[in-house]
Amino acid sequence: MKPSHLSMMIAFAVAGPLATPSARAASPGACKLLTPAEVGSVVGATMAVGPSVNGPTSSSCEWKQQGGGVTVIVTAKSLDAFQKGKTILSPAPVSGIGDEAYQTGNSLSYTALSARRGQNAITVSVRGLKDVSAVQAAEKAIGKIAVTRL
Fold first, then answer.
1. What's the CATH number of domain 3-147, 1.25.40, 3.30.70, 3.40.1000, 3.90.320?
2. Contact (Cβ atoms closer than 8 angstroms) between residue 105 and residue 125
3. Which residues fall within 8 angstroms of residue 74, CB to CB, at 6 or more apart?
4. What's the mean pLDDT in 48-67?
5. Mean pLDDT, residues 68-84 taken together
């Protein structure tokens, strides 16, 4: 299995079970939150929308750099899943994104931004950039765009 598909499955598996279907407010599928051009402008690469995974409690979408390299995964999830993430992931608060946001992880192998607007939330993961600060900056920029469409 390709690493990007594994990352997407992990993101979906973590977001999905943390919420009940009744706790999930109506939100657009993750692939409708961003265009390939928007994602590409943030990461500095030509991106194509990849596979999506939609379930009863979350929706994930993957954008991939054409020719390989950078991968961006956005998971739309419930407020319940967002809140639970704060208790198990040692988050650092992030201001200026949605109603509330936090960053978890601090390495190239794992970092993610979670943000919420109203009763809906997202998690953004970027892989393939050269350093952690670039990854986290890209996650914040992508999150800032996507959260406005929840």
1. 3.40.1000
2. no
3. 30, 33, 34, 60, 61, 63, 122, 123, 124, 125, 142, 146
4. 90
5. 94
Nearest to 72 by CA among 22, 124, 9, 120: 124
Rounded Cα gap, residues 115 and 129, in angstroms:
21
R_g (Cα) of the chain, nearest Å:
14
Please report, rounded to a whole number, the percentage of residues in the chain having pLDDT higher than 90.
68
Task: List Cα–Cα distances, 40 to 14, 36, 50, 80, 138, in angstroms.
Answer: 26, 6, 13, 30, 10
Check residue 14 and give its pLDDT.
41
Q: How many angstroms separate the CA atoms of 63 and 74, rounded?
A: 9
Binned at pLDDT 50, 70 and 90, residue 10 comes out as very low
Confidence of residue 54 (pLDDT cuts 50, 70, 90): confident
C-alpha distances (whole Å) from 34 to each of 30, 59, 92, 101, 142 are 8, 13, 24, 18, 8
CA dist., res. 68 & res. 83, Å (int): 33
